[in-house]
């Protein structure tokens, strides 16, 4: 059977689809088409607030096409992963966004899509014609041991006939061994996700006696070991651990965003957050004084930025100047923040 390569954070694989390769670089934008879905998987991770008919690109709610393009540019995305809910409930929207992304970023902007449906030949041809590169089927658990006799077998065959890369993506739980053997016979890839507890699936998972692996993560005990046990049942297999998604994928995406959006004086951390100094000046008259004081100190203009709530400045410059600019009404901090507009502040260190 094929060689298993150990990846970061407990992930491993014998095969990585193009979509996964780009995702591992943090270069895939996540386009969440709709939170609606007719399925009822006990392990569904979709959050309560996302279970609506709304579209998001990463964390950004989409109102116009411009929002999608802005988010992709901000992270310098090399590709997009279309997900939900069930994206094919909004097929027109899926086709529209595939064309929008290909038209704006070119044919090399790689697009993959998840679906719990088993679409027919016509739909798969429409998706491929629009530019979809890779499709990942997510059959329901109750069909895992009869996949050969379901429409998923046809959908995989038709998808491959269109030239798309085809695969199956499911959580790594009991029964996935049957899917691994089926995927091997169907010559498609199999992605196994480490099963995780979430706010929305915890009750159902506890009723089914799933347990947390440890105190620090949301991973389910035994999910990783199960993937290891069945890894030789399929030649093209990839186990993606939950810590990989948090520790590696997100970090790499933040670093990409920071590299695109950071100001000359923002320091990018190895976690993809940015550090900068901030002088909070509530009094507008004092702000005029501060601007004058700073102008006298020959600070390169690209090393600071004047904002309505104060001044952002290189933290190392603020460190040096703090004794000169301090006064009772000004608050001086070094700020660590997610690298986008309104990004979450991780830490605020007073000076
Ligand atoms: S198919 Fe996906 S979105 Fe739908 S219920 Fe299952 S896990 Fe949730």
Give the structure's gist in a few sentences.
The chain has two domains: 256 residues, TIM Barrel (Alpha-Beta Barrel), CATH 3.20.20; 87 residues, Alpha-Beta Plaits (2-Layer Sandwich). Helices cover 34% and strands 21% of the residues. The strands form two sheets. It has an eleven-stranded mixed sheet. Strands 12, 13, 14, 15, 16 and 17 form a six-stranded antiparallel sheet that branches.
Bound molecules: iron/sulfur cluster
* Measured distance between first and last alpha carbons: 59 Å
Q: Could you give the order of strands across the largest sheet?
A: 1-2-11-10-9-8-7-6-3-4-5
The succession of helices and strands, N to C, reads: EEHEEEHEHEHEHEHEHHEHEEHEEHEE
Return the average pLDDT rounded to an integer. Answer: 95
**What fraction of the residues are assigned to beta strands by DSSP?**
15-25%
Shape: elongated
CATH level-1 class of the largest domain:
Alpha Beta
DSSP helix fraction? 25-40%
Question: Topology, please?
Answer:
Blueprint: E1 5-6, E2 12-13, H1 18-24, E3 28-32, E4 56-57, E5 60-61, H2 65-74, E6 79-83, H3 91-105, E7 110-115, H4 121-130, E8 134-137, H5 151-161, E9 165-171, H6 176-185, E10 189-193, H7 202-207, H8 223-230, E11 237-240, H9 242-261, E12 267-268, E13 274-280, H10 284-296, E14 304-307, E15 310-313, H11 315-325, E16 331-337, E17 345-350
Parallel strand pairs: 3-6, 6-7, 7-8, 8-9, 9-10, 10-11
Antiparallel strand pairs: 1-2, 2-11, 3-4, 4-5, 12-13, 13-15, 13-16, 14-15, 16-17
Iron/sulfur cluster is lined by residues 37, 39-41, 44, 46, 84-86, 116, 138.
């Amino acid at each position: 059977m094929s060689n298993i390569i150990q990846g970061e954070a407990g992930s491993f694989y014998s095969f990585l689809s193009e979509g996964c390769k780009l995702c591992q670089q943090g270069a895939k934008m996540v386009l969440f088409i709709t939170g609606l879905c007719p399925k009822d998987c006990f392990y569904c991770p979709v959050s309560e607030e996302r279970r609506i008919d709304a579209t998001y690109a990463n964390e950004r709610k989409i109102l116009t096409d411009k929002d999608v393009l802005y988010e992709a540019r901000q992270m310098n995305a090399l590709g997009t992963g279309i997900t939900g809910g069930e994206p094919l409930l909004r097929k027109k929207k899926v086709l529209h966004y595939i064309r929008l992304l290909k038209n704006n970023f070119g044919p090399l902007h790689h697009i993959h899509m998840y679906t719990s449906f088993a679409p027919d030949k016509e739909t798969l041809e429409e998706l491929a014609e629009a530019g979809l590169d890779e499709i990942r089927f997510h059959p329901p658990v109750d069909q895992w041991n009869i996949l050969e006799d379901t429409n998923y077998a046809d959908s995989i065959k038709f998808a491959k006939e269109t030239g798309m890369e085809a695969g199956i993506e499911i959580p790594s739980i009991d029964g996935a061994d049957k899917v691994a053997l089926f995927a091997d016979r169907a010559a498609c890839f199999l992605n196994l996700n480490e099963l995780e507890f979430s706010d929305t699936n915890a009750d159902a998972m506890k009723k089914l006696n799933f347990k947390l692996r440890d105190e620090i993560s949301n991973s389910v005990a035994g999910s990783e070991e199960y993937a290891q046990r069945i890894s030789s049942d399929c030649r093209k297999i990839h186990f993606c651990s939950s810590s990989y998604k948090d520790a590696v994928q997100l970090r790499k995406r933040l670093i990409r965003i920071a590299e695109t959006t950071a100001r000359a004086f923002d320091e990018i951390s190895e976690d993809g957050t940015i550090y900068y100094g901030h002088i909070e000046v509530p009094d507008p008259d004092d702000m005029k004084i501060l601007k004058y004081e700073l102008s006298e100190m020959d600070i390169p203009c690209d090393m600071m930025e004047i904002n309505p709530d104060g001044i952002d400045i290189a933290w190392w410059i603020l460190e040096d100047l703090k004794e000169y600019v301090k006064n009772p009404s000004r608050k001086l901090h070094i700020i660590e923040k997610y690298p986008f507009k309104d990004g979450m502040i991780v830490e605020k260190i007073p000076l």
